[in-house]
Amino acid sequence: MKTNQPIMNEQSRGVFVIAATPFTDSGEVDLESIDSLTEFYLEKGVSGMTVLGMMGEAPKLSESETTLVMERFLKRVNGRVPVTVGVSSASNLRLERLSKEAMSLGAAGVMVAPISNLKLDEQVYGYFTTVANLLGKEIPICLQDFPQATGVHMSVNVINQLTDDFSQVVMLKHEDFPGMRKLSQIREQSKASNRRRISILVGNGGLFLPQEMLRGADGAMTGFAYPEMLVQVCDLFDAGKPKEAEDLFNIYLPLLRHEFQYGIGLALRKETLRRRGAIKSAFVRRPGPVLDAKDLDELSALISRLDFELA
Known about the structure:
single chain; TIM Barrel; 48% helix
């Protein structure tokens, strides 16, 4: 671990934007676009970044590319905000290696989703117990609760037990769908039991961000191509202005909802980032969606509508 590097902890708040992984039109990792994308996110006021997430196309990268992408993002950020690295893997050896490599390069912590097909609470708890013991107490862990992708249900009881038993569990990425009741239960039970309060950042494209903030979320961990909106909404909630926050959110909602579509959403996000000058190419590695003329026209219309509403 580097000296004085930012650390992800229980007090983490705001927007930890999920970074896209830029490629050239021929499908190679685009290092220059990693630099420009990083500056784009930081200029929009994000509190942190998350790289090699599921929406960052991490499973499509080779081992050497994984290290290259992680290293380039961390070098460009250069400690300005904490960077969380997605390290989920079916291989415990790979998960351990990538986690320790990430921390040695300056990461603030790691994000881990459960391996697929864990059915019982005991199995989910056992898996994360193995991970926590493997990584040790010095590496902060964000639990990724994303049953739509993993097929694993993480109960409130399991999340609470992991929080109680492992001090390195400092954050939950809350992406159950629908999951707002789960969020309320975690906060209510934590307060009633005088349990350690961990940071909760929400995903699902930010689609339910105002309601989730009212239920106790600390911010968002998602990759909407207009991260400044997410930042402003979180800031307004922190300032005690929930109505103003929701009014602002609603202006962007048609585009946010459009980008959230399963299957095609990543391509829409990268195309929007390209149009905003953050990356050079909207290329999505196979298997992945390719936008057609109708898709591009729809996106143009929604962006034009947003520009009109903001004006």
